[in-house]
Amino acid sequence: MKKVGILGGTFDPPHNGHLLIANEVLDALGLDEIWFIPNHEPPHKHKSGGANNADRVKMLELATRSHPNFKIDKIELERTGPSYTYDTMKLLNEMHPGYDFYFIIGADMIEYLANWYKIDELIEMVKFVGVNRPDYQEISQYPIINVSVPEMGVSSKLVRDRLKEKKSIRYLVPEPVQEYIEENKLYES
């Protein structure tokens, strides 16, 4: 049985924190692969005026290409409307019977799980993996596999803000992602 971790997000842009989390969960749980799934329209976030879908996918490809166990799945980009995890996991389970899926969330989302769309049905389809984040509890009424990851205070918002302020993003994002951002003049104000 193939064990696959799912890391969803806007990846606007993908950064080294995403890669660190994915690698730590892959290793800690002995997973076969991590699938990065860029959101089309996350239900809990407002559009930030960032990169378009094609640019976000290209940056993810550049960020993950050196890791043989990292894959990109565009399932949410191929649908319209909000990207509910329930709908995505229902489709993935239908497409890949016999796979065990592990959905990776930050501690901020652990606290919010009770509010997720169809959470009671969702926990029957996927195992949740919670990773620590500063200032958040890792406690839930739902079953969570906790994985401790080294803290890295980087976020996509931080990267976008630094770019707008004309500050360096070196070592915050993989070098090919930085080059792509610069070549395509992404996130300029």
Would you write up a description of this structure?
With 189 residues, the chain is of the alpha/beta class. It has a single domain (3-151), classed as Rossmann fold (3-Layer(aba) Sandwich). Helix content is 36%, strand content 17%. A 6-stranded parallel β-sheet has the order 3-2-1-4-5-6. α1 (16-29) links the parallel β1 and β2 (33-38). The longest helix has 14 residues, at 16-29. The protein starts with a strand and ends in a 6-residue tail after the last helix. The relative contact order is 0.20.
Helix vs. strand class: alpha/beta
- What is the name of the CATH topology? Rossmann fold
N-to-C series of helices and strands: EHEHEHEHHEEHH
Q: State the distance separating the first and last CA atoms.
A: 47 Å
CATH class: Alpha Beta
Q: In the CATH hierarchy, what is the superfamily?
A: HUPs
Strand content: 15-25%
Q: State the shape.
A: globular
Count up the domains: 1
The DSSP helix count reads 7
The main sheet orders its strands as 3-2-1-4-5-6
The tally of strands reads: 6
Low-pLDDT segments, ≥5 res: none
Average pLDDT taken over every residue = 91
Integer-rounded radius of gyration? 16 Å
Q: Describe the main β-sheet briefly.
A: 6 strands, parallel
Give me the CATH architecture, please. 3-Layer(aba) Sandwich
Give the % helix. Answer: 25-40%
